[in-house]
């Protein structure tokens, strides 16, 4: 044991190459690879985070210790790491507690170099303190709020939510200076102005606005969250308007007088001589522009949950201008992940008709209801209600249980038929096709493995069933196979059941087809070894034709039985008689050691990118070998569902040849994965292995989204995010461009697309 022992877990910060290689050591020197690393994880800036560990003195004498910081001098307000036990003594065979504190000043990575010294023992150990700081996941439920048209003097309010996705509470406060518009000609109220958000919860905030002037007002509301580096921002817009009505009167002389709303208006018709007196009442009516909507309620009914490749449900809304003037029409609805309205601002001429496609993308089992407001001439609105319901596509195999059709082991020329019962347990009718695609050449021949019927199948909802026949008629020996039967429905392809079987055959061979004995001394004898192999599936008896060997040759054993996969060695020996009547005999002994690593593989693979590694597998024998492939994950201990490392379970390699094995790696998260890939002969227990390390690094942009529109005109685009994991995943969205509005977060259900 060393003279000083640190009770610290090992860090991968250096070994896993997570540290930027361009960074230098303390004060610009070369970085010492033997440096011990202590990592801190902090949420939010200016938060206190501490780490403690024990240092043991295993010697029989007391010694003192001291911690020294090797960083360049910085102002006190910028110092991030503090040692709370800078010096002290450790008694013999005792432990002392060391404590460091990390107060982050900025996001991302902060490093600090320290050295631990024990003068009495001449011990000097370099340390690197690494702090990783992330911004608290506290967001608003939206990035913008539009009140649209508001009548001057009338108060309106809307409620937003502050979302805390962290496991601790955070306090917040709205900046009072942000309660005024950009031109400082309008103000609003917030309730409450400050408060605290409980862990993993939503906090409601109400915004009150009373417009006082005509025209558009814009607010940029700021909310400071404790320990968050940047304030939360909410862009608020509203347009104030007033009822501007004027009535004018024109007399017989052509003089026009505007009537007042503040006093009684007197219209002098003058006196008509010898005529009657008429009392007139003036009425006026404001008419809404006449537009005809084909329906104000659209119901998609029950639709299957949308997956990539499916044909979504779509309905068309028809709008007709029945007025005698042009009518401008705008849609105020912002598309969501489950509903999309394909509409841009348009001017309808008298009698003109337009079609608005509305597409429904249900993402989970739930009922959906949305209101789509259409703005007419910028003054009034017409709302269309859209309803729909998401449901799962439940197509189950009733028989056989386990969704595996076992065809058995047939002989050449035999035929077997199996019946598969399929049920539609969905709440809607279903039409689909079955497809069987095999990669085995023997199964691709016509009539060997087929399904009946091959046409489309239609099932009624809630339990309707159909029967599918699987026919297997092998024409040659076929190794055990396992094939998937896929279901195609509305563009979606999914596995329905498995088909397993084989065709047994006899295949016996010798490892060589001729023997050379060379020169043999008269009255002496020599022997050679040959191996008979049964690479088929059925055990067979064998018997040599002894008569054809006589009189000069013999063979042993002359007959026997050889099981499938079994080798029968024919053992021989050679004897050298010496002139004095003696002979030579040698005894050989040895020890078999474990094989050396066949190769080391290191690959850097971007996240969300599938990579296939080609591993050469050599067969050192002069007969074919089948290897069982075992992939052991050395680090991390457990492979999460967000990472995939897979390949075939077996590989067959011809005699004295090399065959490539394909190992596929895929990861959604960054990390280092150390593996050992072993190729094992299960009969002889001989094996070879490779060490493979895959480093998942950050990926670049997946694609570029181009959006083009006129000034002050809205345009939207949808980004599809796939979640192949078996659990729901919440995504946070951040966009630095102020003109682009995105939801702060959204959740994609398990094995779905959002």
Q: If you had to describe this structure to a student in words, what would you say it looks like?
A:
It comes from Limosa lapponica baueri. It is found in: Cell projection, Cilium; Cytoplasm. Residues 289-388 form the HYDIN/VesB/CFA65-like Ig-like domain. This is HYDIN/VesB/CFA65-like Ig-like domain-containing protein. The protein folds into six domains: 5-134, Immunoglobulin-like; 138-241, Immunoglobulin-like; 291-391, Sandwich (Immunoglobulin-like); 399-504, Sandwich (Immunoglobulin-like), CATH 2.60.40; 506-513 and 523-583, no CATH class; 600-697, Immunoglobulin-like, CATH 2.60.40. Helix content is 1%, strand content 48%. The chain is built from one helix and 55 strands. β17 (215-225) and β18 form a beta hairpin. The model has no long low-confidence stretch (mean pLDDT 83).
Q: Major beta sheet, specifics?
A: 5 strands, mixed
Shape category: flat
Structural class: mainly beta
CATH topology of the largest domain: Immunoglobulin-like
Protein name: HYDIN/VesB/CFA65-like Ig-like domain-containing protein
Domain HYDIN/VesB/CFA65-like Ig-like: 289-388
Organism: Limosa lapponica baueri
Main location: other
């Amino acid at each position: 044991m060393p003279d000083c022992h640190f009770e610290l877990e090992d860090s991968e910060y250096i070994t896993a190459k997570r540290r930027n290689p361009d960074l230098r050591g303390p004060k610009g020197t070369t970085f010492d690879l033997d440096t011990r690393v202590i990592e801190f994880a902090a949420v939010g800036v200016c938060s206190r985070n501490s780490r403690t560990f024990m240092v043991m003195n295993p010697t029989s004498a007391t010694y003192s210790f001291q911690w020294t910081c090797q960083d360049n001098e910085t102002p006190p307000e910028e110092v991030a790491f503090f040692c709370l036990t800078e010096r002290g003594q450790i008694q013999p065979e005792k432990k002392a507690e060391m404590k460091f504190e990390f107060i982050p000043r900025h996001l991302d990575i902060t490093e600090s170099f320290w050295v631990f010294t024990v003068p009495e023992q001449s011990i000097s150990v370099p340390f690197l303190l690494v702090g990783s700081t992330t911004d608290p996941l506290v967001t608003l439920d939206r990035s913008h709020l539009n009140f649209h048209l508001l009548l001057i003097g009338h108060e309106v309010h809307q409620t937003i939510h502050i979302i805390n996705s962290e496991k601790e509470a955070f306090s917040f406060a709205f900046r009072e200076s942000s309660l005024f518009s950009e031109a400082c000609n309008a103000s609003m109220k917030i309730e409450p102005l400050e408060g605290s958000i409980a862990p993993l919860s939503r906090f409601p905030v109400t915004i009150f606005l009373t417009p006082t002037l005509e025209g558009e007002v814009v607010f940029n509301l700021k909310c400071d969250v404790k320990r968050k580096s940047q304030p939360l921002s909410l862009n608020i817009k509203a347009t104030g308007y007033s009822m501007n009505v004027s009535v004018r009167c024109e007399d017989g002389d052509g003089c026009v007088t505007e009537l007042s709303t503040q006093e009684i208006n007197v219209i002098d018709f003058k006196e008509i001589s010898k005529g009657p007196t008429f009392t007139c009442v003036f009425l006026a009516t404001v008419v809404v522009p006449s537009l005809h909507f084909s329906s104000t309620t659209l119901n998609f009914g029950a639709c299957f949950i949308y997956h990539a490749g499916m044909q979504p449900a779509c309905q068309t809304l028809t709008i007709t201008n029945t007025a005698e003037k042009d009518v401008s029409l705008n849609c105020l609805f912002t598309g969501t992940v489950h509903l999309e309205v394909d509409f841009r601002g348009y001017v309808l001429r008298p009698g003109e008709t337009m079609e608005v496609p509305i597409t429904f993308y249900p993402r989970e089992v739930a009922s959906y209801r949305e209101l789509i407001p259409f703005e007419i001439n910028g003054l009034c609105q017409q709302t269309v209600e859209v309803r729909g319901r998401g449901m799962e596509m439940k197509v189950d195999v009733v028989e056989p249980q386990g969704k595996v059709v076992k065809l058995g082991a047939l002989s050449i020329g035999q035929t077997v038929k199996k019946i598969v019962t399929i049920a539609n347990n969905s709440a809607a009718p279903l039409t689909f096709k079955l497809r069987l695609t095999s990669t085995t050449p023997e199964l691709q021949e016509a009539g060997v493995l087929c399904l009946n019927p091959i046409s489309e199948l239609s099932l009624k909802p809630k339990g309707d069933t159909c029967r599918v026949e699987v026919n297997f008629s092998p024409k040659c020996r076929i190794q055990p196979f396992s094939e998937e039967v896929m279901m195609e429905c509305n563009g979606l392809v999914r596995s329905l059941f498995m088909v397993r079987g084989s065709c047994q055959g006899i295949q016996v061979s010798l490892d060589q087809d001729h023997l050379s004995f060379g020169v043999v001394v008269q009255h002496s004898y020599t022997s050679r070894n040959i191996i008979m192999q049964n690479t088929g599936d059925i055990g067979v008896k064998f018997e040599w034709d002894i008569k054809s060997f006589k009189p000069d040759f013999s063979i042993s054993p002359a007959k026997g039985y050889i099981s499938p996969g079994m080798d029968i060695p024919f053992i021989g020996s050679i004897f050298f008689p010496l002139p004095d009547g003696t002979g030579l005999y040698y005894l050989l002994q040895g020890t078999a050691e474990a094989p050396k690593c066949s190769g080391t593989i290191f690959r850097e693979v971007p996240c969300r990118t599938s990579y296939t590694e080609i591993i050469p597998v050599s067969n050192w024998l002069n007969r074919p070998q089948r290897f069982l492939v075992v992939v052991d994950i050395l680090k991390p201990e457990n492979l999460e569902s967000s990472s995939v490392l897979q390949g075939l379970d077996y590989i067959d390699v011809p005699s004295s040849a090399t065959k490539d094995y394909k190992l596929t790696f895929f990861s959604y998260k960054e990390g280092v994965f150390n593996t050992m890939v072993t190729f094992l002969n299960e009969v002889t227990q001989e094996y070879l292995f490779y060490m493979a390390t895959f480093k998942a690094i950050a990926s670049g942009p997946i694609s570029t989204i181009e959006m083009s529109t006129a000034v002050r005109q809205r345009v939207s685009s949808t980004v599809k995010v796939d979640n192949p994991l078996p659990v729901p995943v919440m995504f946070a969205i951040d966009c630095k461009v102020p003109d682009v509005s995105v939801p702060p977060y959204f959740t994609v259900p398990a094995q779905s697309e959002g």
